[in-house]
UniProtKB/TrEMBL annotation:
Transmembrane segments: 34-53, 99-120
Protein's UniProt name: Diacylglycerol kinase family protein
GO MF annotation: an example: metal ion binding
Species per Swiss-Prot/TrEMBL record: Flavobacterium rivulicola
Binding site for substrate: 72
One Pfam family per UniProt: DAGK_prokar
This protein's UniProt keywords: ATP-binding, Cell membrane, Kinase, Lipid biosynthesis, Lipid metabolism, Magnesium, Membrane, Metal-binding, Nucleotide-binding, Phospholipid biosynthesis, Phospholipid metabolism, Transferase, Transmembrane, Transmembrane helix
GO CC, any one term: plasma membrane
């Protein structure tokens, strides 16, 4: 498939959004870590409706989901590129992958903290 630049602003943006949705679907349907995180986001959305969280809590919860899924997506891209460039194990590639995974850990810990701040008081 040859790359063709679309010089029209509107159709170019529409194509970009289409590619973004295609990438999101690929992530959700092929990457196990994204499947788990997306499923947890759905469960927390249901919990948000059940516990009737307020607008501020919804904002924080949605930002946390976006952060984790966004960073996980970038981590997946880094891993795929690293595997493409150097398919065999290499210490430097492993180091790069570990750093990308560490970024996901930071985001996940922040999301857990947000979830605890929102839902622990509902149980107390």
């Amino acid at each position: 498939m040859a790359f063709e630049k679309d010089n029209s602003f509107i159709t170019g943006r529409l194509k970009s959004v289409g590619y973004a949705f295609k990438g999101a679907i690929k992530l959700i349907t092929t990457e196990h870590s994204v499947m788990v995180q997306f499923s947890l986001a759905i469960i927390m959305i249901i919990a948000g409706f059940y516990f009737e969280i307020d607008r501020y809590e919804w904002m924080m919860q949605m930002l946390a989901f976006g952060l984790v899924l966004g960073i996980e997506s970038l981590n997946t891209a880094v891993e795929k590129i690293a595997d493409f460039v150097h398919p065999e194990f290499h210490d430097r590639i492993g180091f790069i992958k570990d750093i990308a995974a560490g970024a996901v850990l930071f985001a996940a810990l922040a999301a857990i903290a947000v979830g605890l701040l929102i839902y622990v008081p509902k149980f107390l």
